Model the fold of this input.
Amino acid sequence: MALRACGFIVFRRLALLEPAPVNIEFLLLQTSYGEHHWTPPKGHVDPGEDDFTTALRETKEEAGLGEEHLRVIDGFLHKLKYEVRGKPKEVLYWLAELKDPKMVVTLSEEHQEYRWSGLDEACALAQYKDLQETLRAAQRHLEATGWK
Done:
């Protein structure tokens, strides 16, 4: 059975002076372990916990952003499948807007830095093709649904 993790692709909208997609920035966290890779907040599903609850809990634990700070965007759920140390892993990402774009991110000990980035920079930081495609899919979803 595959290891399972869940999280949110969190984005914020900058001043409305810039049109979408220029005014959208994605939150990425840099791990404080291993290769110090960049990812959206995510984590493993605890026994008896449903996927969405895991995504909320992990986003709160890793970035200090609770359900009250997020507006979940309907119709977006992206699944990544890959191997970690020879074992299969699945990651589910929902998409959520940070309600207050000035809200401060509070990192857990699992991360050493965070960055708000436009799509191109976020993809460059993400490094992994499947995560880059997930970020692009999030951007496309926002554009296709007329999100402004």
The longest helix spans residues 129-144. The longest strand covers residues 70-84. The beta strands are 3-13, 24-31, 38-39, 42-44, 70-84, 87-98, 111-117.
